Amino acid sequence: MLNAKRVLLIVTGGIAAYKTPELVRQLKKAGASVSCVVTQAAQQFVTPLTLQSLSGDKVYSDLFSLTDEHEMGHIELSRQADIVIVAPATANMLAKMAQGLADDLAGTLLLATDKPVLVAPAMNVRMWEHAATRDNVAMLKKRAIVFIGPDEGEMACGEWGEGRMSEPEEIVAAIAAFLDAEAPLKGKRAIVTSGPTVEPIDPVRYIANRSSGKQGHAIAAALKDLGCAVILVSGPTHQPDPLGVQTVHVESARDMLAAVETAFPADIFIAAAAVADWRVDLQAPQKIKKSGGAALPEIKLVENPDILAAVSKPGPRRPALVVGFAAETETVIEHARAKLAKKGCDWICANDVSAERKAFGGDENTVHLITRAGIEDWPKQSKTAVARKLARRIADHFAAQTHVSGKTSA
Ligand code: PMT
């Protein structure tokens, strides 16, 4: 239900915190990985050790912990998550969120996150009904914070009314429903290529390029985040395999083509890999010796298969949407347009890879999305942002097609 989703659970200081070990257990049972942050007050109701034992991950509580900051910056905690849950969310925490206060780790993470935030309030009925809380809730809803509960029932203080935290299974179901609605590419299957290919000269030497895999891996992760089933075919890189993405590791262009063909069928194909255009004709079986004379070894190159062109060929197995990249150092748009036509793909992402732009290996990219309808000039942004924009653009494309075919058949 929550397969491979990364949940950041922020536990604040209310009596309902005693239910959070069960919430962690149920989130894990549903397939999520869970990291917990506890406020000082929460630790009066639930021990970090209990949450750590059940989540199998370190529990964070201190904004100024040198060890935690060394291991992982606090911003990273919320960036690495797919979704942030505040449960229980006290009246105090809702007020802090509404005001944007960042005076502890929980508040700082909630202010720094770029991920969806869901809250499960828990408080006395009078606190829930207080005008201050009503205003805070209204403000948070306006900012797209999603509320789960609270439920009506008997409170720990003996009063009856609205303010009980929803039960752990209701919270898990609400998270699953939210993620489902956020998954416009659910049911679609994508193959993404990433990184360089390496073409051996002899058993120890090879020809390669400077691709780091950052862009291709980010695209695979962004598609997965929209519910797509993704197979990433990657050349050698230092990037970790994206969580929830099936990753196939290859070396040469021919290996990459074979892995792509094995991964078929697919609805979407994205060629972000920097595939070597040529390979060495005859790989030496032994290390080539330095002879010391004037005769330098000669390397004869032959052309590699073009994976993007092969996948783009019309036929029953052709993915509905084929997206290439064009790495250019001059007349970027013109060359990219020519590649789109020559290779037969549907869209091409043109990026300027001149040395000063640092597109190869860097963290940012400036992309021009060329489709048959025209060009979109995207601003320079992080490769993660490029990936998310492209994934959204793909989701919109399929949504528009469903709309059109729905109209046609009506
Ligand atoms: O990996 P990073 O460091 O994050 O850098 C990202 C990137 C700059 C490598 C990426 O954004 C990018 O531009 N990838 C394509 C690089 C490339 O090889 O471009 P090209 O213009 O030479 O090739 C055009 C297209 O054909 C590409 O989609 C490429 O994957 C594909 N191709 C090329 C040759 C070949 N034999 N087979 C292919 O499929």
Q: Can you characterise this structure?
A:
- This protein has 410 residues and is an alpha/beta fold.
- The protein has two domains: 6-181, 3-Layer(aba) Sandwich (Rossmann fold); 189-409, Rossmann fold, CATH 3.40.50.10300.
- It has helices at residues 20-29, 48-55, 66-71, 74-79, 91-99, 105-112, 125-129, 131-142, 168-181, 214-225, 253-263, 307-312, 332-343, 383-409, and strands at 6-11, 33-38, 59-60, 83-89, 117-121, 146-147, 151-154, 160-164, 189-194, 199-200, 206-207, 229-234, 246-249, 268-271, 278-280, 301-303, 321-328, 347-352, 364-365, 367-371, 374-377, 381-382.
- An eight-stranded mixed sheet has the order 13-12-9-14-17-18-20-21, sandwiched between helices.
- Bound molecules: ligand PMT.
Explain briefly what this protein structure is.
The protein is α/β, with parallel strands linked by helices.
Summarize the SSE layout with pairings.
Blueprint: E1 6-11, H1 20-29, E2 33-38, H2 48-55, E3 59-60, H3 66-71, H4 74-79, E4 83-89, H5 91-99, H6 105-112, E5 117-121, H7 125-129, H8 131-142, E6 146-147, E7 151-154, E8 160-164, H9 168-181, E9 189-194, E10 199-200, E11 206-207, H10 214-225, E12 229-234, E13 246-249, H11 253-263, E14 268-271, E15 278-280, E16 301-303, H12 307-312, E17 321-328, H13 332-343, E18 347-352, E19 364-365, E20 367-371, E21 374-377, E22 381-382, H14 383-409
Parallel strand pairs: 1-2, 1-4, 2-3, 4-5, 5-6, 9-12, 9-14, 12-13, 14-17, 17-18
Antiparallel strand pairs: 7-8, 10-11, 15-16, 18-20, 19-22, 20-21
Helix pairs in contact: 1-2, 1-9, 5-8, 10-14
The structure holds ligand PMT.
